[in-house]
Write a structure and sequence with these properties.
By secondary structure, this protein is of the alpha+beta class. The chain has helices spanning 2-10, 25-40, 47-60, 71-82, 109-113, 136-143, 200-213, 231-239, 285-295, 347-351, 353-360, 403-413, 416-427, 437-443, 448-462, 472-487, 492-497, 502-516; strands spanning 67-69, 84-87, 90-95, 98-104, 120-124, 127-128, 150-156, 164-169, 171-174, 178-183, 188-193, 218-222, 247-252, 258-262, 274-278, 300-303, 311-317, 323-332, 376-378, 384-386, 395-396. It has four domains: 1-45, no CATH class; 84-174, Pdz3 Domain (Roll); 178-396, Alpha-Beta Complex (2-enoyl-CoA Hydratase, Chain A, domain 1), CATH 3.90.226.10; 403-504, no CATH class. Strands 3, 4, 5, 6, 7 and 8 form a six-stranded antiparallel β-sheet that branches. Strands 10-11-12-15-16-21 form a six-stranded mixed β-sheet, with helices on both faces. Belongs to the peptidase S41A family.
Length: 521
């Protein structure tokens, strides 16, 4: 009887038998509290939400990058890291309470079926897709479905008196991690990676092979704003540029176990010039690539000091569809430096570091970057590099902190530019049919009338009198880039904006200087 009472006191009535004899008192304390609330508390309580709060509270006391992923977020997070989802393949936004196609994704089931930009999707298998009460999650839920399943879409197209009907078979739709890949000059290629997903290396190799076919000799790898992702993808991309047996990085866990990763024979770009662009939002896997190249005296790192994340996480399932990404080790660049910035003052202070950097002036003046001589390291060729919080570039390019740039970034983030461009396209899409992608990027001109129309649009939407007299050219470029992104396939947006990008200009300057240097025989 005594044994039964002892065991019963330890039981959670939904537990499996392997938990009965758990001896960890800390675990038991949490389990017992949740059981008390579940079975004894005066009101009904959703203990799942209590568990979520408890898990988040525990992780917040570890480090800023150990995070909890609730069950409801797992599919979205998994799709983003995997690099694809099953759907019909359209980019859209809700325009006047109706799902409006911006563009059918290249090669997608929707494009093959004939769906076009400007189409309004009214129903999916008879379910309406319009109305104020319909959320984006509801819409996506109706358009997504099992692989190879068919969805019947009723579509309104401007100029057609009757609704069009499309039968679209759902398929894998890529979520590209390579935003753009094209030639900056006859010999200099450009590739922009937005994150390191499972598909990233395959995407990168495909684009690199395409560039090699048109004569690429040197490469710009744009990792600005890239928050990271899978460690293995960063290792593979660094391997493309490093000679055999060069150290890429090493990791160390709390038991002191060290694991080293070296470059292999697989690299296809080991002898050519490589320029890596980073900024204050380049983190984790982006910093692994930049640090591996910098510490091996390979290539040129251009931009501003990176984010400063030197921790490695592993995703672990919690058994109910949720998961935790737990920090399991630290990584170090080949010279032995950790680039993890301090987080001893708490997560809020950690995430406020961006504003501290901005206020102390380091985004515009490299001499304002705080460095410690105790964290000084030396590369094989004698270059001094520093640990302690991000990768400091070899060539500094300041942040454009002008009011004009801040205003344009705000308008872009809030969707004002893309919404305006879409409405302008709706007036006469056929006016752009004569332009090829190349002709549009090189020759299309945004008129002053376009800018005035944008000012009027903003005034109507914000009830503010907005003018762009001081920076009309910048506004024109943003409008043109957004127009290109809605008319053409991926990369058009970046290709337009890069024509006046400060870091790209610096790369072109350095590349020209390199070509002027005498070559050894």
């Amino acid at each position: 009887m005594a044994a039964g009472i002892f065991i019963g006191g330890k039981l959670n009535f939904s537990d499996k038998s392997d938990r009965i004899f758990t001896s960890n008192s800390k675990k038991e304390k949490l389990n017992r509290l949740i059981d008390y609330i579940d079975y004894e508390y005066v009101d009904d309580v959703n203990t799942d939400s209590i568990v979520d709060v408890t898990v988040n509270g525990i992780l917040e006391n570890l480090d800023p990058h150990s995070v909890y992923i609730p069950k409801g977020d797992m599919q979205r997070v998994s799709e983003n890291m995997k690099g694809d989802f099953v759907g019909i393949g359209v980019s859209f936004y809700t325009y006047n309470d109706t799902i409006t196609v911006i563009r059918a994704i290249e090669g997608s089931p929707s494009e093959k079926a004939g769906i076009q930009g400007g189409d309004r999707i009214l129903t999916a298998n008879g379910d309406s897709l319009y109305g104020k009460d319909l959320s984006n999650a509801d819409i996506v839920g109706k358009l997504k479905g099992p692989l190879n399943s068919e969805v019947k879409l009723e579509v309104y197209r401007k100029g057609n008196p009757e609704l069009l009907v499309f039968h679209v078979k759902r398929d894998h739709i890529p979520i590209p991690s390579v935003d753009a890949a094209y030639m900056l000059t006859e010999t200099l290629g450009y590739v922009k990676i937005n994150r390191f997903a499972e598909s990233t290396f395959k995407e990168f190799k495909t684009e690199l092979n395409t560039l090699k076919a048109v004569g690429v000799q040197d490469l710009v790898l744009d990792l600005r704003g890239n928050p990271g992702g899978f460690l293995a993808m960063a290792e593979k991309i660094a391997d493309e540029f490093l000679e055999d047996n060069k150290l890429i990085l090493f990791t160390k866990n709390k038991r002191g176990t060290i694991e080293k990763t070296y470059a292999t024979k697989k690299g296809d770009f080991e002898q050519s010039a490589i320029y890596v662009l980073i900024d204050e939002n380049s983190a984790s896997a982006s910093e692994i690539v930049a640090g591996a190249l910098q510490d091996n005296d390979r290539g040129t790192i251009i931009g501003r000091r990176s984010y400063g994340k030197g921790l490695v996480q592993r995703e672990m399932n919690l058994g109910d569809g949720s998961a935790v990404r737990l920090t399991i080790s630290r990584y170090y660049t080949p010279t032995g430096r950790s680039i993890q910035r301090p987080y001893t003052n708490g997560n809020n202070d950690y995430y406020d570091d961006y504003f501290n950097r901005l206020s102390n002036g380091e985004f515009v003046d490299p001499d304002k970057i705080e460095i410690a001589d105790s964290l000084k390291f030396t590369t094989p060729k004698g270059k001094i590099v520093y640990g302690g919080g991000g990768i400091i570039p070899d060539v500094f390019v300041p942040l454009d902190t002008s009011m004009e740039n801040e205003t344009l970034n705000f308008l872009q983030r809030r969707g004002f530019v893309s919404n305006f461009v879409f409405e302008e396209l709706e007036k006469n899409r056929q006016a752009y049919d004569a332009y090829t992608r190349r002709d549009f990027i090189d020759n299309f001109v945004i008129t002053d009338e376009f800018v005035i129309a944008f000012q009027d649009y903003l005034s109507a939407k914000t009830n503010a009198n907005i003018t762009f007299i001081a920076y009309t050219d910048e506004v024109k470029q943003y409008i043109k880039a957004t127009l290109a992104s809605q008319l053409y396939s991926k990369g058009a947006y970046e290709e337009v904006l890069n024509k006046s990008d400060m870091m790209i200009k610096k790369v072109l300057e350095l590349d020209a200087q390199k070509k002027e240097l005498p070559q050894a025989n």
